């Protein structure tokens, strides 16, 4: 086992380098790149959702609602006000988080099961709103023609030299691949840091035993609200990216199925496991792409791939409740106390 | 128009009530939102149609067979999916419930296809179309009358089972305190299975009646109806059987009135909005008692 771990170190960097170089190599393919960017969107969603059931033990069934809010915020701001992507992202995140607080403030005081149902109802209301408020969202027609992301530094370049124009528009999949890569990396690092912070420890304490957490001075309600706001904000971030990437939005994209898919990723990777969420996203999106081709060949509608997802969730909860990639907190493994204990135990075994 | 809306709302509401008691009974006994209950309701409609067309059974026989099959399905659901997780964290059971719901929905899609199917018209007795009662403009067909009578009769029967029989007493004991109930010699697993069977049978009946009334059935019908029935259960106070019946009727009427007078595209939204408001403002429901979170 130790040998594998030692090998994993360099291999990890090798894989990372390969992933970074992939779009520039001649073997790169538009379809594969598209799927990879999709995987990245879902990686962000899975990491964001993971905060609720994974860290706090609260089931959020309406995650796609915040994804949709983020996407439509970005789409509408682009179409109506022509704002830059870099301005829209924080606005979308704030809007998502705001709705998280509005919804969470009255409901997070309640028993966990009610929270699941309220979030579900909320996401359904979001879809109904997007479908029916035609004056704002054009309803089922969707929002076409959202401008792609652009990196506009012309103000700086004209300052330096009047004839320079530093403006780059993101066309094709490759720039989005790198933008998505950046987004996943940032969220990943933030999540890892949060996990081991005061905030993350409070969340995990709430998950393990709310009463013990409260008696240790954790303000349950406050930390749950923070968790929900952060989680919703990340969902909205993914939505904003998605809107500027696909350049088209319609209410159908934000149906309950998406929430379920993201939840399935988190469950597959192990509740509360950040790396697991990444792997879960990669596995399920790839599986979905394969099934999309295989199922019609068998004469079945492509939606039936959810049969497999449902089965995965039931089986994982039954046989591997920690997920496929059960996590042990790194701080636990490196803690001198634990290491000492391990050494003593090992010595006792041999002695 | 108002009277006609009320009549239609009552039809819908009684059907919601039949589904809602399934949710509320299971919640009362094992504190689990059985998300797959909506799918049992959907299977009820499809199985009935199958018995009618494939085996050519008479309507009554097909309905009863479908109810029995769904009751068995409910028991199977409990034994296979929920029983192994009885002592696991609640989150695990909840996720399993959603997984089962999605699984069953897609199973139905594979078996019967994703397009809506009509109910078998030939199997319906001819008098269903005839108007039974009419007050001025308001017309109640015999089909609606049948729905009223069957739903009310089933709910009276259910109330008798819960209050008068030994198993019903055991169910109520389990809802109060599972450990204590098992110490009194109650076979906990058997009573839970019975609860699932009872709720699923009623759910199947609701599914059959809805597909008859609207003359359509589709694999995703359980998803919306399930959430609305759950909203009804919450409205009446989850865990309370009379509350679920009451909540179902109120929700059904509110939905038709909302669709008729406020805005018809938001028809489904009415149920969700009521549910969210009730959960926020009065989580114990209209008829329920205040519940504190059990650790």
Summarize the structure.
The complex is a heterodimer of chains A (351) and B (295). Chain A has helices at residues 2-21, 30-56, 63-81, 85-107, 112-132, 134-137, 154-160, 173-195, 198-208, 210-215, 220-246, 256-269, 274-297, 305-319, 330-334, 336-350, and strands spanning 150-152, 167-169.
Record the SSE blueprint.
The complex is a heterodimer of chains A (351) and B (295).
Chain A: H1 2-21, H2 30-56, H3 63-81, H4 85-107, H5 112-132, H6 134-137, E1 150-152, H7 154-160, E2 167-169, H8 173-195, H9 198-208, H10 210-215, H11 220-246, H12 256-269, H13 274-297, H14 305-319, H15 330-334, H16 336-350
Antiparallel strand pairs in A: 1-2
Chain B: H1 2-30, H2 37-53, H3 59-82, H4 90-112, E1 131-135, E2 138-141, H5 142-164, H6 166-176, H7 178-183, H8 188-214, H9 221-236, H10 241-262, H11 267-281
Antiparallel strand pairs in B: 1-2
Task: Kindly describe this structure.
- The complex is a heterodimer of chains A (351) and B (295).
- Chain A has 351 residues and is mainly α.
- In chain A, 74% of the residues lie in helices and 2% in strands.
- Chain A is built from 16 helices and two strands.
- Chain A has a two-stranded antiparallel sheet.
- In chain A, helix 2 packs across helix 9.
- The two termini of chain A are 23 Å apart.
- Chain B is mainly alpha-helical.
- The model of chain B has no long low-confidence stretch (mean pLDDT 85).
- In chain B, strand 1 (131-135) and strand 2 (138-141) form a beta hairpin.
- The longest helix of chain B is centred in the N-terminal third of the chain and has 29 residues, at 2-30.
- Chains A and B meet through helix 5, helix 12 and helix 14 of A and helix 4, helix 9 and helix 11 of B.
């Amino acid at each position: 086992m130790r040998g594998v771990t030692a090998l994993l170190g360099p291999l990890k960097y090798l894989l990372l380098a390969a992933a970074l170089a992939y779009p520039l190599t001649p073997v790169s393919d538009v379809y594969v790149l598209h799927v990879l960017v999709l995987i990245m969107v879902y990686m962000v969603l899975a990491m964001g959702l993971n905060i609720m059931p994974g860290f706090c033990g609260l089931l959020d069934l309406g995650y796609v609602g915040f994804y949709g809010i983020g996407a439509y915020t970005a789409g509408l701001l682009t179409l109506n006000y022509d704002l830059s992507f870099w301005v829209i992202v924080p606005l979308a995140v704030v809007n998502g988080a705001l709705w998280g607080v509005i919804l969470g403030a009255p409901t997070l005081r309640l028993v966990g099961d009610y929270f699941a149902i309220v979030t579900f109802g909320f996401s359904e209301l979001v879809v109904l709103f997007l479908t029916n408020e035609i004056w704002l969202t054009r309803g089922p027609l969707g929002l076409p023609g959202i401008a792609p992301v652009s990196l506009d530094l012309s103000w700086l370049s004209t300052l330096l030299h009047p004839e320079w124009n530093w403006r780059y528009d993101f066309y094709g999949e490759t720039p989005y691949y790198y933008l998505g890569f950046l987004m996943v990396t940032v969220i990943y690092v933030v999540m890892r840091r949060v996990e081991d912070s005061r905030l993350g420890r409070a969340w995990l304490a709430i998950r393990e035993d709310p009463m013990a957490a409260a008696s240790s001075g954790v303000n349950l309600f406050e930390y749950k609200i923070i968790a929900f706001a952060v989680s919703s904000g990340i969902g909205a971030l993914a939505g904003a990216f998605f809107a500027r990437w696909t350049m088209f939005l319609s209410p159908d994209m934000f149906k309950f199925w998406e929430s379920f898919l993201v939840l399935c990723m988190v469950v597959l990777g192990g509740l509360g496991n950040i790396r697991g969420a990444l792997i879960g996203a990669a596995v399920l999106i790839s599986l979905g792409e394969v099934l999309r081709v295989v199922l019609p060949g068998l004469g079945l509608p492509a939606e039936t791939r959810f049969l497999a997802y449902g089965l995965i969730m039931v089986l994982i909860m039954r046989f591997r409740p920690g997920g496929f990639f059960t996590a042990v907190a790194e701080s636990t493994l490196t803690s001198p106390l634990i290491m000492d204990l391990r050494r003593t135990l090992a010595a006792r075994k041999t002695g | 128009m108002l009277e006609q809306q009320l009549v239609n709302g009552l039809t819908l509401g009684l059907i919601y009530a039949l589904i809602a008691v399934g949710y509320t009974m299971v919640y009362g006994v094992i504190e689990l939102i059985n998300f797959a209950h909506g799918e049992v309701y959907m299977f009820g409609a499809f199985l009935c149609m199958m018995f009618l067309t494939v085996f050519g059974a008479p309507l009554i026989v097909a309905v009863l067979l479908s109810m029995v099959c769904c009751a068995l399905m409910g028991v199977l659901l409990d034994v296979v999916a929920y029983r192994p997780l009885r002592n696991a964290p609640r989150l695990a059971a909840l996720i399993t419930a959603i997984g089962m719901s999605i699984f069953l929905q897609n199973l139905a899609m594979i078996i019967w296809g994703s397009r809506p199917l009509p109910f078998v018209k030939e199997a319906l007795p001819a008098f269903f179309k005839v108007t039974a009662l009419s007050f001025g403009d308001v017309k109640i067909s015999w089909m609606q009358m049948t729905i009223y009578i069957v739903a009310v009769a089933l709910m009276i029967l259910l109330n008798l089972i819960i209050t008068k029989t030994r198993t019903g007493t055991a169910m109520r004991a389990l809802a109060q305190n599972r450990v204590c109930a098992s110490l009194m010699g109650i076979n906990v697993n058997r009573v839970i299975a019975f609860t699932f069977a009872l709720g699923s049978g009623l759910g199947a009946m609701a599914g059959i009646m809805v597909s008859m009334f609207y003359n359509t059935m589709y694999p995703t019908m359980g998803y919306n109806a399930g959430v609305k029935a759950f909203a009804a259960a919450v409205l009446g106070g989850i865990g309370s059987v009379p509350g679920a019946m009451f909540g179902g009727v109120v929700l059904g009427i509110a939905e038709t009135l909302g669709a008729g007078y406020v805005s018809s595209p938001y028809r489904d939204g009415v149920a969700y909005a009521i549910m969210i408001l009730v959960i926020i403002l009065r989580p114990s429901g209209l008829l329920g008692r205040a519940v504190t979170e059990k650790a």
